Amino acid sequence: MDEAMDQALDAVGPRLRALRKEREATLADLSEQTGISVSTLSRLESGARRPTLELLLPLAKAHGVTLDDLVDAPPTGDPRIHMRPVTRHGMIHLPLTRRPGGIQAYKLIIPGGTRGEPDLKVHEGYEWMYVLNGNLRVVLGEHDFVMKPGEAAEFDTRTPHWFGSADERSVEFLSLFGSQGERAHLRAKPKAKGA
Fold this sequence. Notes:
Blueprint: H1 3-22, H2 27-34, H3 38-46, H4 53-63, H5 67-71, E1 86-88, E2 91-95, E3 103-110, E4 126-133, E5 136-140, E6 143-147, E7 152-156, E8 161-165, E9 171-178
Antiparallel strand pairs: 1-2, 2-3, 3-9, 4-7, 4-9, 5-6, 5-8
């Protein structure tokens, strides 16, 4: 290995220790979360064991950082994030966040008139949506309504739900989704007296 890579790998141990201390977690807590033995974690932090991808992936997830952040990868020089769109259930999902865990942000595009009849789903999590363009039909439990550009909704995804284009035009909206029930918190100023 070249010298730069050796230096990067040598710096992983102290970084792992700092991240664990930041979270106020013990080696036993981290071991339970990752399935990596306490002795291996201790040797990684002290530099007595070389980090491998097999060890670093669960640690990055446990600490809520990317693998690049964990190994302090050099910047590429291009600050743009190049996310690849994914098509699922007739919708185009464009991820806007890269960090593992926590609230995830997506831009979703639903082509007009393509989703058919509502097929309500339930799953763990909490979702916040904001319509950018088009009219979004939302079925949420016994409620069936249309959201227009500039409108937002939030709901617990354990409530049966479905959304699609309300007409023949496509719909674009932003979605913040927390798989463990994390909620988006909006701060608003109180109305001025006399307003």
